[in-house]
Specification:
Structural class: alpha+beta
Helix content: 25-40%
Radius of gyration: 38 Å
Order of helices and strands: HHHEEEHEEH
Shape: rod-shaped
Number of strands: 5
Distance between the termini: 75 Å
Strand order of the largest sheet: 1-2-3-5-4
């Protein structure tokens, strides 16, 4: 029961009490003419408008029509803006192409830069290319790259702002130095 129903309930209660205490048994005979009393009053009394709750200013509460509306949201989320890679660092795609040119396996390359942003892994990288052999991360600075390389210690290689990750790769440990040599030969 809400506090908005209390005034209507009070009116009905008063009407029942008055009806019970007034009138005689003659009024209930089949020949008696109906009189206007609270018994004949409709039970669907309109409820008076509820007063605002204590401590709520009526001027600051939203109108009833505004309470039922929902806010419209954009159809798609805003695009993720990734940090720019340093001008001195090669791009992830350029590194994968250099691996391919050197005859290294880089099958199924996928641009996964979206995983760098807050909706993905949130690593803060600038570029990310994943292949079956190695995943190439390019970070906006060397500090970020070294932090991630330390996290993946033993399963990664860092040169400047670039980190090669072997965690999900199928590359044997013996072949990893060849990838690292190609990376070191770029710029």
């Amino acid at each position: 029961m809400t506090t908005r129903n209390l005034p209507a309930l009070g009116i009905l209660l008063v009407a029942v009490v008055l009806t019970a205490g007034c009138g005689s048994d003659d009024d209930r005979s089949p020949n008696a003419t109906p009189s206007v009393s609270s018994e004949a009053a409709p039970t669907d009394l309109p409820t008076p408008p509820a007063s605002p709750s204590p401590g709520v200013d009526a001027a600051t509460s939203p109108p009833a029509a505004a309470q039922g509306t929902t806010q419209r949201r954009p159809a798609s989320p805003p695009p993720v803006v990734l940090p720019k890679r340093p001008a001195t660092a090669p791009g992830a795609k350029q590194i994968v192409e250099a691996f391919r040119a050197a005859g290294l396996k880089v099958s199924h390359p996928k641009d996964r830069a979206v995983d760098c942003g807050p909706d993905g892994l949130g690593l803060g990288c600038s570029e990310l290319m994943a292949t079956d052999a190695v995943t190439v991360y390019v970070f906006p600075d060397e500090t970020s790259a070294s932090d991630i390389a330390e996290t993946w210690a033993g399963q990664s290689y860092q040169r400047g702002a670039v980190v090669l990750n072997y965690l999900e790769a199928k590359t044997p440990a013996a072949d990893r130095p060849r990838y690292e040599k190609v990376l070191n030969g770029l710029r």
